[in-house]
Amino acid sequence: MQTMSQAFDTAFHSERLLYRPVDLTDEDKKYFYEAMFSDPVIVGLGSPSLLRPKTRSQSDDDLSSILKDSLLAVMICLLPQEDSLAASTSGEKAAGDASKPVPIGFLSMSKLSESMQQMRFTRIGIQLAAPYQNKGYGGEAINWALDWAFKWAGMRKVEIGTASYNERAAHLYRKLGFVDEGRRRGVVFMNGEWFDMIGLGMMLDEWKALRGIE
How far apart are the C-alpha atoms of 28 and 67, rounded to whole Å? Predict the structure, then answer.
């Protein structure tokens, strides 16, 4: 069993990833604009909102709004040794400074209004830059977020969702232990078709069972 010091020491990283605050510096804003908000595939799979190009100013405003409405908002980063290992395995050049964590995506958890905080639930949002998808990083980050929500934030429930055309995301969420809670039928319009929004959730007791916690 971990001591409290050990728990504190590992609170902001998982096996391959580190989670740091999003800083409203030009560097972080530029990353979001170029790696997240300018990629129509990432935007379309990650959000049911109207698909249209964004200016840098709109991207900056969206980021500020997300941070304002989030209980937690972190940059998902590769630990330096993981970036070097991934590069050597793929034959590509490492993405950044060998001594610094490399940003690969973003994760947020929604914040309830003051009058709703007693409900103790939150909702995960996650996006990964294209070069880092299909490597297991998304599942690792979501598992970390679940642990943070239940171990540190005192949540009773964590929700996540996706449009029905993003079948891979829905499959991953179920694989991680999320349970289907319902569909909002025909509420997403994309590429000339109507799709459902799938809602999934995990309760505290379900998380404890997955982690083997009595």
Answer: 13
pLDDT digits (tens, 9 = 90+) for 33-49: 999 999 999 999 999 99
**CB atoms inside a 10 Å sphere around CB 71:** 16
Both tokens of residue 68? Answer: 């304002």
Per-residue CA distances from 35 to 27, 75, 139 (Å) = 12, 12, 19
For residue range 91-148, what is the model confidence (pLDDT) as tens digits? 555 555 667 899 999 999 999 999 999 999 999 999 999 999 999 999 999 999 999 9
CA distances from 50 to 44, 77, 184 (A): 9, 28, 17
Strand ranges for the chain from DSSP E: 17-21, 70-78, 102-110, 121-128, 157-163, 179-190, 193-203
Dihedral sign of CA atoms 93, 78, 70, 190 in order: positive
Q: Which domains does the chain have, with CATH numbers?
A: 4-211 (3.40.630.30)
Q: How far apart, in whole angstroms, are the C-alpha atoms of residue 131 and residue 117?
A: 37
Q: Are β-strands 121-128 and 102-110 bridged in parallel, bridged antiparallel, or unpaired? A: antiparallel
